[in-house]
Specification:
heterodimer; A: six-stranded mixed β-sheet; four-stranded antiparallel β-sheet; B: 113 residues; globular
Chain lengths: 117, 113
Amino acid sequence: AQTVTQSQPEMSVQEAETVTLSCTYDTSESDYYLFWYKQPPSRQMILVIRQEAYKQQNATENRFSVNFQKAAKSFSLKISDSQLGDAAMYFCAYRSGRTGTASKLTFGTGTRLQVTL
Amino acid sequence: DTAVSQTPKYLVTQMGNDKSIKCEQNLGHDTMYWYKQDSKKFLKIMFSYNNKELIINETVPNRFSPKSPDKAHLNLHINSLELGDSAVYFCASSQWGAGETQYFGPGTRLLVL
């Protein structure tokens, strides 16, 4: 079974600075997808970024980028120019490349990000 | 327009009661999911339906019964509620296919007293 580990329960960053959230995963599959979701105090789960394992290029979405190291099974999220609105819980998630019963998301335990002035 | 909606957003009830949570998506997706987020914020899959067919049924007490009347709706009925059922329940949807992104509803906070 796949597992996802987020070893940083809490992180803090100053506004306008850069922060990196860590995520590692364990799988025997070669085809899979990785996601970062953001959960602000409103509770809504918002997709931040996704990465296909078969792509070597790291995904980027505006101020958000990932460092995907497939051999190391590492998938960290970098937030540049942090803003107050980035304060939230961030969840790393894994999805198998297979369909059907494997289509579920397996989540890490989350990292709470604080953004200070 | 809300893509994935859930009703109610909050549910407070007594132990032993039966309750339902409804989910609707207007994204045209054919696959829907229920996830549970416990008090420690851990998210875990409960069920998934594809085209009204149950495809994922994790180890969940049989007091929980999902129902999908059509591709756009997935409801969750809970019988004989227990204190441990208190959690946030999220509905999500995606298009069938490897790697398709799942989009989440706003969640339903259930509190069992």
